[in-house]
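One record is set out below.
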Amino acid sequence: MKRHVLIAAVILAFWPFLTSRAGAQEEQWLQYRSAAEASQIVGDMNYLYKTPTGSKPEGIDLPGFASDAPLFLLWETPMAKSGRVCLAFDRSSGGGQYDRLYIDANADGDLSDETTHEPSRRNSNNSSFGPIKIVFDTEDGPITYHLNVSHYWRPDRTYCLLRSACWYEGPITVGGVKKHCTLIDYSINGLFNDKSTDFSKCDRIRIGEPEGRDTRFVGNYIEVDDKLFRPQIARDGAFIVLTEADDVAYGAIRVADNITSFAVGGENGLFTRTPKEGLARLPVGDYRFDYWSIVKDDKGAKWELRGNRGGGLFAVTQDEEIALGIGEPVYSSVAVRQSGSYYSFSQNLEGRREERIELLRNGSRPQPPKLRIRNRDGTYDRGMSFEYG
């Protein structure tokens, strides 16, 4: 009898562990991809604008340069133990272009043991290098990352654009349904799990069809097929874990009744909403709005007024309703510039939160507006059209 009681006690002791393991989500591993034209293949990739200088970085061993005026810049990445990777631009001839690149490809703070990279493309005012392989030494072993580097020079300045040349993708299962997942290092710092209320500093995720372009912000949540999940993404992008979120606190947003749809984003992720009678629910947190849209049909034509990004943070609090001032009215302004006897005019549309406004007809911009100029006595009366671009 005592033996039976002991066995029962052991089973009861392990029961919470067994049930928690049964409900746990597994790591779903993705494949690493890289390409010189990664941004064209994947889309929704960002770039970093950097200004190289002639100041030699401290604590970095340097190679023997061919020119006497090399340029340097530091790429900040938490994947490197020092938090940075050094790049140096050199000239193969004294007064020529910067057509040689050294990069600390093993992130050990030493450029003296690196080989030079020659441009993959070049013209009269820029050189492009890459994709360049960088290997980070981490606790989980070596991790590979590829980077594209473009160096531009102008009479008044020189600058660099750094772009990610890699991403992760692969099939995953979400709620028993097969999907395709893509992870993009949008913040270009070597990590794939950045969350931020600054849209330029949060990474991107897609879950859907392999060729889909429904890109979301990496955040605390992601909606898939009208269900809310908590994603756990490996810092290097190698795997993702999705757990259904069923204990989320919500608040409400009130917008104008004629708002057809809107999207807001933050550390919670990106949420697109179609409000009902001007009301929509969101998980509690801080957000910025990404866009709002008003769609109307007029004699067979679909007109859309769209506001893109503007205004500061706003907070959604539990069981409360806040009014979000987006939508009409929209303000039109005309700026006039004079150069000698010539005048230039530019017309601009702006929303209440200083957002950029687009007016579309059947998905395309309609003909630009007209401008009519007439002097007081009527001796000058002329109509002109604005031009896009």
